[in-house]
Write a structure and sequence with these properties.
mainly alpha
Length: 143
């Protein structure tokens, strides 16, 4: 009988301990406990860590946006480099064209001087023209 009384006493104590433990667990959960409301592995301790989790998610999104911007900037820099190379090639081609044009202008100047000399010689022969010295009188007769 003594054993039965001890078992009943231990059973009552066990039930009381279970109720107290259940009450503590419920109170813990009711006051915030370890709920993972943020979805990022940060547990809410009742002091606003849910907000921290949301801000962390926002920071991660911002970082991804920044990384995307950096990649876009690198592509832009490469495009600018290619454009500079093309511009330098065009500049060299233009410089060569200017040099060629300068040589053509110089040659045109020499030709104009030679033409001016020819015209001066023609005018110096007078209206009757002294064409005998160059043997071209028959070509210019009547003119």
């Amino acid at each position: 009988m003594l054993n039965e009384e001890k078992q009943i006493k231990y059973s009552k104590n066990f039930i009381i301990v279970c109720f107290i433990a259940a009450f503590i667990v419920m109170a813990f959960n009711w006051l915030g406990g370890r709920s993972n409301k943020s979805g990022t592995g940060i547990y809410n301790n009742g002091n606003g860590t849910g907000d921290v989790g949301a801000k962390l998610q926002q920071a991660i999104g911002n970082q991804q946006t920044i990384n995307d911007g950096i990649r876009d900037s690198q592509a832009t820099v490469e495009n600018i480099g290619t454009s500079i190379d093309r511009s330098q090639t065009a500049e060299r081609t233009a410089a060569e064209a200017v040099e060629r044009a300068a040589s053509l202008v110089e040659e045109s100047g020499r030709l104009a001087a030679a033409n001016t000399e020819i015209i001066k010689n023609i005018r110096s022969r007078g209206p009757a023209g002294n064409w005998d010295e160059d043997g071209r009188r028959e070509i210019y007769q009547g003119h």
